Amino acid sequence: MKKAFILFCLAFLSFCTQVSAQSESSETSGKKKKKEIGFLVGLQRSDLDYNSISQTNVSEESKTSLGGAFFINWRLIGHFITLRTELGYYPKGGIYKIGNTVQETNLAYLAAPAALVQVKMGFLKAYAGPQLGLLLTANSKTGNTETDVKSTFKTTELSAVLGAEMNLPFRLLAGVRYNFGISNISEIPTVDTKSGLYMLYVGLRLHK
Fold this sequence. Notes:
The protein has 208 residues and is mainly beta. The chain is 13% helix and 64% strand. The protein has one helix and nine strands; from the N terminus they run αβββββββββ. β7 (156-167) and β8 (172-181) form a beta hairpin. Mean pLDDT is 83; it is low at 7-31.
């Protein structure tokens, strides 16, 4: 999982650098700047809300992981309102205790381009919108035993994103967001499962 995340970051960093170089080349030829690109990496706390857990003696804990995304902000109205599109890698899951038994569920999603409307007020920005996630891997771990459970989860997830961000010197940025599931991600007919994720992140604007 960590290796996949590192490869994702390196691939998008390379892509961002190329796009930034192309954009700056276009601007030197007289074209007006119309977009901002960059990437973000952050610490996540996620959980899975099962409708069946309330009916059993199960305690639930949030899971900590690292996630990140590449983003492009397209201007709609000057610098104030933009359309923010993202492509990200987000591990999700939860930790469950049944008596002395601890079970950990790990899901990894590739977040398809989110369509987020962003409003900028000085150095502060707020954004919100829908996001489609594509399930990459899913496993359940009990002790040292790990089981592939991808067949019990749907391949797509519809969620919503709410976030706030501020620009820092040297093209850096910092922000916080909440991602909550809208669709049921369980393939089991009697189970309704939705995800929740808080993220505290930092990032870099490669071009503005």
